[in-house]
Design a protein that fits this description.
Blueprint lengths: L1 H19 L6 H22 L6 H24 L1
Length: 79
């Protein structure tokens, strides 16, 4: 159940990150996939840095930040 919630939060995070980034990201499905991957990246990076986000909002914040970072990196590579 926790994994399902994490995946749903990642999808929402991708949608939010796509709307925050200039150019809108990579479409709804692309942003959702990037959000899920970004959620894992955000959780890992903030864990390594010693930050712990608790609850759904904390997880969503880490996922959005991870997705924004991932969209930025993918944008740099795509150029």
């Amino acid at each position: 159940m926790d994994l399902l919630i994490f995946l749903l939060l990642g999808a929402v995070a991708g949608w939010i990150a796509g709307n925050l980034m200039k150019g809108g990201g990579y479409g709804l499905i692309g942003n959702m996939v990037i959000g899920v991957v970004g959620a894992f990246i955000g959780k890992y990076v903030f864990g390594v840095l010693g930050f712990s986000f608790g609850g759904l909002l904390g997880t969503l914040l880490a996922a959005v930040l991870g997705a924004v970072i991932l969209i930025f990196i993918v944008g740099l590579i795509k150029r």
